[in-house]
Amino acid sequence: MAAPPQPLRPDGPLPYPGVLTRPGPVTPQPPVPPSPLGSERAAIERLLDANLDRAREGLRVLEDWARFALDRPDLVARSKDLRQRLGRRHQERYKLARHTASDPAAGMSHPAQAERQNGASILAANAGRVQEALRVLEEFGRMEDPALAAEAAAIRYALYDLEVDLIQAGRGGDERRALLRRCHLYLVTSPVEGLEAVVAAGLAAGLRLVQYRAKAGDVPDDRCRFAQASALRQLCHRHGALFLVNDRIDLALAVGADGVHLGQGDLPPAVARRLLGPERLIGRSTHGLEDLRQAVADGCDYVGVGPVEATPTKPGREPVGLAYVSQAAAECPLPFFAIGGIDLANLAAVRLAGAERVAVVRAITRAEDPGAAAAALLAELGAAS
Questions:
Q1: Which residue of the set 54, 89, 233, 285 is catalytic?
Q2: In the chain, beta strands by DSSP E
Q3: Any idea which of 100-104, 263-267, 325-329 has the lowest mean pLDDT?
Q4: What is the pLDDT of residue 5?
Q5: What percent of the chain lies above the pLDDT cut of 90?
Q6: CA atoms of 275 and 265, how far apart (whole Å)
Q7: Which of the residues 89, 171, 177, 314 is marked catalytic?
């Protein structure tokens, strides 16, 4: 006997291919409430979580590069501080809003990632990644978490300086020495009011070599020296300029300077090299050929030649005149900077004696317009660097 026909289900699948079912009554269904993941607030919370993760991960890359590649505990500390400040703003509700399975960009990569073949490129990529994430946190955080937005903005600006300092710290000795050879004007600071503004004006004019000199009595104590040197080092590095410290190897190391300048009465260059390592620069003051030859033998990177004229920065020091400049020009295999009372009035004579590079103090620090003075000296030297 044939089986009885099966009832047709108006809301079910077709019982046989190609056979239509009879329409039946349709029971109204309640509207489906919108998914929490689809709400704007939930989307913003997911967005904040993703960018907090991205920024913190990128900062950890910078931190580990400073730790293991650069051996710079000061840069490690600064990177870690930024990362932990973000961590304190990473609320639990943002983490609970995370939903990786529904993220259309999860696991997405870009061919440019495979092109990063060295530490510098990885550093640059991650610094950019953090900056972009911080900008997103700043923009969307204003709607959901103003405190996070304010912190992201502050960290973003701090990161600009940190990135430059990481790049500068990664400079090899060859790169520093190449920049040194391109420098024709060298500013040695003196204790003047508004020193940072004076140096900033010179850097804006094209100056790319600065030495911080603060003798006993010039500043109250080492705390003040450290603050001044730190500010000037950051300023120089933002302009891609070399920054050296006079005499004080400990201070040079503390602020991450590019090197030191030593007088004849300071520590021997061999000791300085052992403390500073092979990458940083060492300069030496010389007052005659014997000093110059010894500086070359000691492995110095450049020498000062002078004082050409009597100068209040070296009271009691007899000037050596232009004769020693000519001797240095004939014999010195290193970059040398004529120094001592040099300004626009006598620069032509100093150059005629054979000096391609000069170091100045008062010609810029005591000028009415330090930027214009630096620009005029650079123009006279024929140097754009």
A1: 285
A2: 185-188, 209-212, 242-246, 259-262, 281-286, 302-305, 336-339, 358-360
A3: 100-104
A4: 54
A5: 70
A6: 18
A7: 314
Residues 6+ apart with CB under 8 A from 209: 180, 183, 185, 186, 187, 241, 242, 244
Put residue 354 in one of left, alpha, beta given phi > 0 → left and psi -120 to 50 → alpha.
left
Q: Rg of the chain over CA atoms, in angstroms? A: 32
pLDDT in tens, 277-321: 989 999 999 999 999 999 999 999 999 999 999 877 677 678 899
Residue extent(s) of CATH 3.20.20.70 domains in the chain: 173-381
The span from the CA of 10 to the CA of 380, in Å, is 95
CATH number of 38-101+116-169: 1.20.1260
Amino acid in position 205: A
pTM as predicted: 0.69
Note the pLDDT tens digit of each residue in 223-251. 999 999 999 999 999 999 999 999 999 99
285 is catalytic: yes
Residue 165: predicted pLDDT: 81
Catalytic pick from 213, 233, 284, 351?
213
Q: Is 213 in the active site?
A: yes
What DSSP string runs through 258-297? SEEEE-TTS--HHHHHHHH-SSSEEEEEESSHHHHHHHHH
pLDDT digits (tens, 9 = 90+) for 27-56: 565 554 544 445 889 999 999 999 999 999
Q: Answer yes or no: are the C-beta atoms of 169 and 69 closer than 8 Å.
A: no
Per-residue pLDDT at 169? 79
Provide φ and ψ at 346, rounded to 5°.
-115, 5
* Comma-separated ranges of CATH 1.20.1260 domains in the chain: 38-101+116-169
Q: Which CATH number fits domain 173-381: 3.20.20.70, 3.40.50.1010, 3.30.390.50, 2.70.150.10?
A: 3.20.20.70
